[in-house]
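User: Predict the complex with zinc ion.
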Amino acid sequence: MIQIYDSLSRQKEPLPEQKKLRLFVCGPTVYDYSHIGHARTYIFFDFFAKYLQSRGYEVNYLQNITNIDDKIIRRAAEENKDPLKLAAEFTDAYFNDMAVLGVDAVTHYAPATDFIPQIAAQTERLIEKGFAYKIDGDGWYFDIAKDPDYGKLSGRTVEQAEDSVSRIDESVSKRNKGDFALWKFSKPGEPSWNTRLGAGRPGWHIEDTAITEYYFGPGYDIHGGGADLKFPHHEAEMAQQISASGIKPEEFVKIWMHTGALLVDGKKMSKSLRNFITIRDFLKKYPPEILRLLVLKHHYRSPMDYTDGLAEEAKTNLQDIGMFVRKLKKMLNGIESRQLPMAPASDGSILDALEDDLNTPKAFADLYSFISSHQKDVWNLDAPVARTYAQTIEHFFELFSIALPNPQIPEKIEKMAEEMEQFRTNKQFAQSDALRKEIEGLGYMIENTPRGPFLWPK
Ligand SMILES: [Zn+2]
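Assistant: Here is the predicted structure with zinc ion placed in the model:
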């Protein structure tokens, strides 16, 4: 049974019983390139959706795109660009980054500007029910004093110093310090839409609940996002939806999942500290599977401290595993696969750890100890066992969407290795050694094995 930690009940909960799950994850605010902290959240939920699918669930995975927001308007003004155009450019950049990272499990992407009527309608319901009030020349605000459950998710109702991502709109005329904007009246030069609320644009939090209500209805199964969005963003979402629909907090979202922070060299990423790494920067140095591996080797709720050392280690790691799988397959050379009897499957226990709140670090640790216990005796394995081991490892990495290194060896090098083997069998050791040196000089390592020479790029 799959159990997942719910940030609202603060304990592990069984997955809802039905086989169709509705998953919503907060998408990016498209005013800049996404960084590796964002990548952590999106890689994790991509894996999560694929894992659920592998367990027989049908996952309707929805993600919003915040393409209208204060940050976008500010950046556009700095660059003398149209805000909506700037947002469209960074939306494209986001989709490109996700494609390179193999993040492709999202069913629907929903840009906020496509849902203005729904956003306005939900705001109107909040006004009619007495949860919202107007500040002239400013906008419509949610009155947090009207919601007795406000603060239930995050354990607080006021902003703290670390809330740099989640912002509360400031206005001296607010009824409560924590009240947040639902609709902002238009200012000169800003994008605006004419609605019954007055000309303006949506607040940040209401985009999500208008979009989820449109696709899923007032209640759904799983809401995900970075832990830094818990307050006020997710708290505000809950307040809006339960107030607009008259439901209980537990009826809005069954399980709240939050991914931990990503630090770089032990510190919070910031441009002034020069430790800010965009996905693009990362990909200039390492292939995408290294980021997936690093993210998924950490437990999703734990903080993750990125260093280049970790990336180097992951790269070596992956090479070793790719080489081990190649060796296992070499044990099958010349044997037709269907002639082999089935060896018992061995991946069940390795993947069991995932049922316990997606304990990916344990799954990786179990896989690594499985590999290291067989690395030495690889050439003594029976072919059926070697085949099962190779399948176990390949299945594992397929589930994580991580491609194992599978380098092509040029025919010329293969031929030289065969010749070398021939010299060795004929005890012509001087010639054999000379060829070995030549092969190594061309950038390949070569190992003599009972199955013939084994080659791998150095
Ligand atoms: Zn959101």
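The chain has three domains: 3-259, 308-399, 411-457.
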